[in-house]
Amino acid sequence: MHYWRLDPAKWGEILDRIGQLGFSMVETYVPWGVHEIAPNEFDFGRKDPALDLGRFLGLVAERGMKAILRPGPCINAEISWYGFPERIIRDPQFWALDAEGAPAYNPALPAQFPVPSYANPKLFEAYEPFLTALAPLVQKHLHPSGPVVALQVENETSYFFRQGTFDLDYSEPSLALFRHFLEMKYRTLKALNLAWGGGIKGFAEAEPPRVNAAKDLKGLAPCLDWAEYREYQILWALSRLTEMYRQKGFEGVPLFHNLYSPFETPYNLPELEKDSGLDFCGIDAYPHASNSGSVLDKARYMALTSRLPYFAEFTAGSWPSFPAITEQDNRSSLLLPFMGGARGVNYYMLVERERWLGSPISRHGELRQGRAEMYQSLNHFLKSQEWHLSSPQFQAALLFTREAQLCEAAFQMPGLRLPLARLGLPEALLGEPHAAGFFGGHPAEAQAGPEALRGWLDDARAFLRQSQLAWAPADSGIDPAKLGRLGLVLAACWGYLDEPTAKRLLSFAENGGMLVLGPQRPRLNQRLEPLKSFEELALAPGKPLAYGDGKILWLPGAFDAKACQALLNRSRLRPEIALSDPSLDHGLHRLSGRLVLFIRNPHPEPRSCSVLKEGKFVLKPLWAGTKFLGAVEEREVLLAPRETRVWEVIPC
Amino acid sequence: MLSRDPRIDDISDLSWERLGGLAFAHENLARRVVLLHRQGRALACWDTQAGRLPLPVQKVEDAQALAESLKAAHPEALEAWVVEPEALRAGLAKAQMGLDLGLDLDLFLRHVWEQRMQGSGLGLAPRREFMWYGLPMARLQKFCDSLLPERCCFTLAAFEGQALWAGLLAEFEGPKLVGLHTLDALPQAELSSAQGIEAAPFLLALVSNTLQRPAFGWFVERADLEAWMRCPDADAKAEIFQRSILERRSYFDAAALMPGAGRAESLKPIPPAEG
């Protein structure tokens, strides 16, 4: 709930309503631009009672509830300037610049603004007085003596949704940071010149590319470095902010961040968790019923990759400039974070406010019946099942290697992603034409490029769905311990592979795993030199190679489902549970020795199916619709359109 | 036209879903044929429903002429685009360089659209003006600048038979849009007696009383509103609008925009039976 947008006289009543829904924790932004009433002068309730954060946190504590604070600097929240003070937005020294040297405007409702550069140390210096003013107030309310149990550092750091590799950020501070990145990566000028093809007299002279016109590997290196740098800029900014938070005494509670939706480059969740000082990084999700399957992907990705699979924002309604997310939409996606393996969900927004619709609590503190019951039922289900003890079961992963992602990004056309996507152009079409075949190789893979890569991924995904194995999407940052527990990994490779990633994959196969590679066999390492660990493998297209206790199957060019199925047939890997209708999704969890089964009907019409499992068993429904049911036994199950249901699988 | 800090609240998801479905229809659902090129070299041709198409030409001499021939060859597509990504980028950069930071969002987006469309590598057939959420913004702007009084509220009420299907209230001051709501901002008990487009005077009085500003509006059957919103051509929209009025399927009540309107007597609620 956004305390500053609500009548302070209603705060207590609204918190009571949140408690009535079964929640015991409340999250709020703390907007810099709202609390700043003059440059570096802040009001935390002295003048405006709606800004009395201390009183708000006191009310939270009085009710025995906990709080998560999100003090920015960026918050979005559909407010003008995304929570930055207008003076910051208007000052050109803070602006990010596009490849043509123009400021980059975010066309956000209600007012567009030139986006700031997150490579600019002055931006963080300008933010510091706000954090300094906020610190004593927050420290007073920090866990364990107060209700504040976590803080989110920044919000959806993402180049303000401008994902094009050759779009942002070409401001001077960003160029300086790029050169610093090159210096860290290459260490010596000689190494940089060796990679880039020579002619650079100092790191300060290294210019970032504005288009990929590479004719050879040396021409490609600057583009790859720029793509990698775009991840680094986010990491650098969040590291700096995290350090600031800690310096201000926000200690003893987790600090985290949230990705706005995608988890492909330049958004690198595992690197952020590893190197930024953050404790974990979540992902946001605003699905409609028709695309609610994306929630499963995100949850499962986090379950294999993140320290804490957490939806930092999960739809409870929507913002007005987005197609409305209705109660039916919310209902159809309600269980999916848990089905996928999420351990935490922040429902955004439980309390409606201006520029938001579809919350279970109105801004006047009234419960909206249907929505309110939905969250009450969910909380009852989670508590009664002790859901925090559950663990999702995975047998396979579809690994879109970070390296292939970076190659794809390095070959992006120079235009803007969003306008092109809005015309209906698929991602694969937005690659440079010279990308196909750039890396050469076996005749079957010689034309591999972004289109083949995306095609391979799509077909591999279809295969995994059909196989009914429990699988998750992942990337090179997959938790090695979790990788080791899988039976099958389909790894989309193109361009190069970091030596450590290559070793992890080979070690997975050596220890008994089945590794399937394509559309290209990795031949180069991160320095674009021969990848030694793969060099000596006697891989033949479509033929499994025994490797240690496991197998490696190379599917060059196009994904070969038959070859992959043959590999699977020769193994002992079988789905623990299968459905007679493989177009339905299912997920398995272990929960205190019990086996819990989710089935989701992604279709707009009702479906029924049989649950297939070795041995005798019965299904005890745990959730159907929004009702928590008692013991009913069944093996043939019926699902309403877009419905998800949950059962305990009981052997007998 | 859109103020910097408008109030957007009292929105029901059902009404917003219905109106939003129409507002996004053009952007999301329209079938397009798109030819991508790079400095005149054709790279790919894509039909958003049928997928990849063979390249109709190898070389793009005149992007606009090619867009028109593509549209003629694919009459089933709503639009044909010829796009050079770098021209898109350059057009946006040109539009954003030295921009007035105080520009309203709708004017900003229109400015960007117009700058982009001037780029030499881009073609669109049929040519059209800038649409935002299905609204022809240049004409709306002209209407607001020349006709709106200092304070007023536009009321849109769409009916399915006699029942209200969706509705929108847009509050203007100055004349900038300062508030946006669905009909949930009105007293629901009174709203329930609004039946069919004949309820226009009653609804306008209700809006005037509730929001304390003169109200004008369009009261229309759902089918006509859908046709108007889905149509990407401003002239064709005008035709749909006028025809629906002439054929008595909609009212456009603009009395509040006339000099002398908006007096006390026009704020008095009129029972639906009298309306």
The number of helical segments of chain A is: 20
Report the principal-axis shape of chain A: globular
Strand order of the largest sheet of chain B: 1-11-10-9-12-13
| Overall form of chain B | elongated
Can you give a write-up of this model?
The complex is a heterodimer of chains A (652) and B (275). Chain A is built from 20 helices and 25 strands. Chain A is α/β, with parallel strands linked by helices. Chain A has 3 domains: 3-278, Glycosidases (TIM Barrel), CATH 3.20.20; 396-569, Class I glutamine amidotransferase (GATase) domain (Rossmann fold), CATH 3.40.50; 578-651, Immunoglobulin-like (Sandwich), CATH 2.60.40. In chain A, a hairpin with a 2-residue loop joins strand 17 (545-547) and strand 18 (550-554). The longest helix of chain A has 31 residues, at 217-247. In chain A, 53% of the residues are buried. The model of chain A has no long low-confidence stretch (mean pLDDT 95). Chain B has 275 residues and is an alpha+beta fold. Chain B folds into 2 domains: 2-23 and 136-267, no CATH class; 28-127, no CATH class. Helices cover 38% and strands 27% of the residues of chain B. Chain B has helices spanning 13-23, 25-29, 63-73, 85-96, 105-117, 137-147, 188-191, 200-211, 222-230, 234-246, 264-267, and strands spanning 2-8, 32-38, 41-47, 51-53, 79-83, 123-125, 131-132, 135-136, 151-160, 163-173, 176-182, 215-221, 250-253. In chain B, helix 4 (85-96) crosses helix 5 and helix 9 (222-230) runs antiparallel to helix 10 (234-246). Chain B starts with a strand and ends in an 8-residue tail after the last helix. Chains A and B meet through strand 6 and helix 15 of A and strand 1, helix 1, strand 2, strand 3 and helix 4 of B.
